[in-house]
Amino acid sequence: MEPLKRRKSSVRQQPEVSEGGFGWVIVLATCIVLFFGLGVNASLGPFFVEFRLYFHESASKASWISALIGFLTLAMGAPANRANNRFGCRAVVMFAGILSSFGFIMSSFANSIYVLYITLGILVGVSNGLMFSPSVAILGQYFNKRQPLANSIAFAGVGVGIIVLPPLFQKLIDIYGWRGALIILAGMELNVCVSAAIFRTPESKKRTKVNEANKNLLPQNNNNQDAESERNCVSLGCSFCRVLGIDCHLLCESYRYALLPYVCFIMGFGYYAVVVHLLPRARVKGIDASGAAFLVSIFGISSFVGRFAHGWILHTVRFVTGFKLCVGTMVLIGFCTCLSALAYTFETMAIYCVMLGLTSGTFLPTVPVAIKEFLGTGAIGAGYPLVNIFMGIGSVLGPPVAGWLYDITDNYDIPFYLCGALFITTVVALFMEPCLKRLDEEDYEHVLSSSMAGTDNSEELVVSVISTV
Q1: The pTM is what?
Q2: Burial 31-40 (b: 16+ CB within 10 A, else e)
């Protein structure tokens, strides 16, 4: 069943896609970009431990670096989408690779934690945002039915990064210090430019753009109801959204889509809080630096498996939709995170890292699938930045709040309990989805009947004019 729309004017055409061919090369390039983007972002734990020791700062202050990176990585999705439409995916991602390298080089000269907020938090965060959204959006131009598989392979780059990079970063820090390790990381980031050089818009997409431009030249007849609906959506703060390139009207097209911002906000808050403090928590529990870094690698291996598991689940279990899988994995993360307070040894922490990686790895590539279920394939590029904004807001709040709770309680179990409880609350969205689906269906039937009535009135008007002449 096609996604239901409230307004006739908002119906999106499904673009023609090639379902493979050169698209698999794009998948590989996206995998490499995400390896050096989100993979590096999730593997900076060894550096944060060094920052705290070197600058003698609290956990909450050090957490703001990761919070800024996570927030800007997601919040830059809408500006990145606008830049992608204007300059093309290749140019935007190549610029992001250069900016990321520059940010790491400048961070190596930092003399305070506040300088790292700018050089590492803002510069690297903005560059990761410019990499992430265009790289994921271009997959939708090459795949439709095979998009879950393409997403699984592309997002596997994040899992590989979490497996390989933490031990590598710890080894580089031991040999060259954290400043020398950042310079080496700056050189590694330039590989993003090499992968971005492969990106190109498929020919079918170019033809679609030309056809849409030709359609815009034709006169359109919008009824008063459509115009009133547009004005109501504009009143939701679209003046700000237009500046960022966010399509707020998507919230008016599907009641069910409005659930995703809430779910992604909770995911951003809890996921980034847990991942950032995973390694420091292991150190507090008495695990040495190499063992703590290996725990992050275990998390990465499990995340790698989870990113492939989501495609298999959606293809084999017919009653599971993308949205149900998103919420189900979050509830499972919540229970595992609450039980992680019982983990005091390396073995029990490793079990928690396995569960955390499997569930979170399944969630992240499933979000575009849920957007497609609610809005259609043609709206993924517009719908993804909007939910990423809410996930980014959660990510900028989660790590500092968790660090603040640790500073005042001297116990990492309290913030992990909080994150686990928030994950479990998303089950409410799962129960609301069937009710909102019925509302979507009623609106669709109302718009369809109004459209048919408008067509009949137009025919009567033409007959009347001809008779008069």
Answers
A1: 0.68
A2: bbbbbbbbbb
